[in-house]
Amino acid sequence: MAWLYLLLAGVFEIGFAIGLKYTEGFTRLWPSVATAVAAAVSLWLLTQALRTIPVGTAYAIWTGIGAVGVATVGILVFAESASPARLACIALIVAGVVGLKAVSP
């Protein structure tokens, strides 16, 4: 169950980071509320995962899911660069996340 919490925490981390773009410096009410809720849910889920998963592993995977997710949304939704070098770097993050999961209890 801890790994599911961690995966969901990463998904809400993506929502939090993307939401920041829409808050316009926290001047727009509803995007700001949604972003704050996504951040709170993400952190709560992370704390639940930390009951079982070591903090170094959980934090690295949580940030990795967020980084890869936000970079992917940037490419697909915001027309950010999908250069081979950028995709290779994203793949390295994915490899690190998968590797940490593989060697963790």
From TrEMBL:
Bilayer-spanning residue ranges: 29-47, 59-79, 85-103
InterPro entries tied to this protein: EmrE-like (IPR037185), Small_drug/metabolite_transptr (IPR000390), Small_multidrug_res (IPR045324)
Highest taxon of source: Bacteria
Membrane topology: Multi-pass membrane protein
Keyword Transport part of the UniProt annotation: yes
Family the entry assigns: Belongs to the drug/metabolite transporter (DMT) superfamily. Small multidrug resistance (SMR) (TC 2.A.7.1) family. Gdx/SugE subfamily.
Protein name: Guanidinium exporter
Record gene name: sugE
